[in-house]
Amino acid sequence: MRILVVEDDKDLNRQLVTALEEAGYVADRAFDGEEGHFLGDTEPYDAVILDIGLPEMDGISVLERWRTGGRTMPVLILTARDRWSDKVSGIDAGADDYVAKPFHIEEVMARVRALIRRAAGHASSEIVCGPVRLDTKGARATVSGAPLRLTSHEFRLLSYLMHHMGEVVSRTELVEHMYDQDFDRDSNTIEVFVGRLRKKMGVDLIETVRGLGYRMQPPGDAPS
């Protein structure tokens, strides 16, 4: 899962990106509104953390342009605690949630997890596919109760497929959501990661849809 952090405070930006990466996400960063708008307009993100008070272009304008342009990714805005009007403006502009500064990083992480789950149609912090369980809060996965020992890329792949359970996901889409914008992307590596993931899970849950991509679904479920 890939997140964009748009925050001009370099220390706070770094803290958020570090927390996201430690939780198994891919995190891109921007330090002003123009750069943030460009990335959000041209790259596919599963969620965005967007500060309201940005240089070059304020966060409300960035958000309004995204929504006007048809960008529907969940957006969590960061607001000043005493500026209730910013919260109202952000929600009216299309924000999905907000956090007031100063805040605990854990609260932001919890809200980001919730936004991503809701966008994919999941209500619980735990996503289940047959014997495989994905704990989005703890960034852990198990199969039949036993821990799955995954590399960061394998975990990102499993997380994306489970969030989009039952859907056919192309190699290109997986690449776009597993790597940041600076990574030298190669869709051929996806096949390698899928093979490793299948072997570690030991159950046949990931279907190869020839010419289209992959679909993960519980055993016995017919393709929709």
Automatic annotation (TrEMBL):
GO terms for cellular component: cytosol; protein-DNA complex
Keywords, in A-Z order: DNA-binding, Phosphoprotein, Transcription, Transcription regulation, Two-component regulatory system
Pfam short name (any one): Trans_reg_C
InterPro entries (alphabetical): CheY-like_superfamily, OmpR/PhoB-type_DNA-bd, Sig_transdc_resp-reg_C-effctor, Sig_transdc_resp-reg_receiver, WalR-like, WH-like_DNA-bd_sf
Source domain of life: Bacteria
SUPFAM superfamilies, per database record: C-terminal effector domain of the bipartite response regulators, CheY-like
Gene3D superfamilies: 3.40.50.2300, 6.10.250.690, Winged helix-like DNA-binding domain superfamily/Winged helix DNA-binding domain
UniProt xrefs under SMART domains: REC (SM00448), Trans_reg_C (SM00862)
Protein name: Response regulator transcription factor
Organism whose genome encodes this protein: Pararhizobium mangrovi
